[in-house]
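Chain X:
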Amino acid sequence: MPLSEKQILNMQTRRQIILDSATYLFATEGYEGTTIKKVAEAAKVSFGSVFTYFKDKEELFYTVVVEPLEELSNQVLAFNPDAKDLLNELENMIKTHIRLYAGINNYLGLVVQVVGQHQRFPRVFEKLDAFHDEFKAKVILLIKNGQKNNLFIQQDPYIVATLYTSLLIGIRLNTTDNVSSIMWDRFIPSTIHLFGVNSK
């Protein structure tokens, strides 16, 4: 007998609660410190319920890191490196990225774990690395276009893009302010300077 719409919705909701609980636990207690039992308790579901959705802890961790990537990618890459008004595009891009990263501190904690132990999590790292390469390539294109139009000073676009993507993760992990704090907007002017905007 097929599941009803209500049953499907309940299952989707329960699965998301499990994922949210696992994200928090993996971010705060690490991979080793997180157990299926702890996830079940945090999600207020039975131990067996977790296995309804995930084969084991490894699959749960993979899902927690990889599943949000598509939505995150769509938001992060939503800038135009060929925009006519590149300076305005740069400022809007930085504002969007800083505010976006401000809201995903637990997720970024997972990213740092995977990158720091990439040999242990090769499948997850491969997905994150592909996203990072695509992100960096698009930022590099924006920088090159800005330099070609004499809007940015000449410097290595790869280095600038690497510093920029690193900065986004770094300021979130080193700042305890909540996502609604005006503190985040104060980072924007200094971040713009990173790109070497030509003052002439």
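Chain Y:
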Amino acid sequence: MILPIYGYGEPVLRKVGEEIAEDYPNLKETIANMYETMYHAYGVGLAAPQVGLAIRLFLVDTSPFAESDDISKEEAEELKAFKQTFINAKIVKEEGDLWGFNEGCLSIPDVREDVFRHDTITIEYFDEDFNKKTEVYSGIIARVIQHEYDHIEGILFTDHLSMLKKKLIGKKLMNIMEGKSRPDYKMKFVNKKGR
């Protein structure tokens, strides 16, 4: 089932997600709905707060990045194959150079800005079958994971921007909050008139 994506300004996007247990109600269904919602919106990642759930759950599928001409054949193969569900994730190490990449977010449609993040991360998490894992990721995969991880910490990519950049996009953010943004996927807006 396709779920509405919560837009910028919705309070749930600022909550730190709570850890969940293996018996969390309808977990498999929630994960399936989140994947369906993400694919419908042409996203590469989606976190539970973006669908109104303040829990530590997010998913990533980097296959759309495999089509880019700017990456090596090896990286394209890695991106094409990477699809993972992260439950109760904890980034335990960030290392390597900070590098910029133009990021967007399904909760903040029509806004894209360069964000600088570490190249390599070590993350502990449970997969959707509640197998505990510790993995090291780098490059674009690490970047997408860091973006989604921020969501379960109540952080948005716009929080990484300078005050000047935030000021420049202020009108766009206000339009999202007021429901004036028109992405081609279902959204829930905090201040939409007549709601």
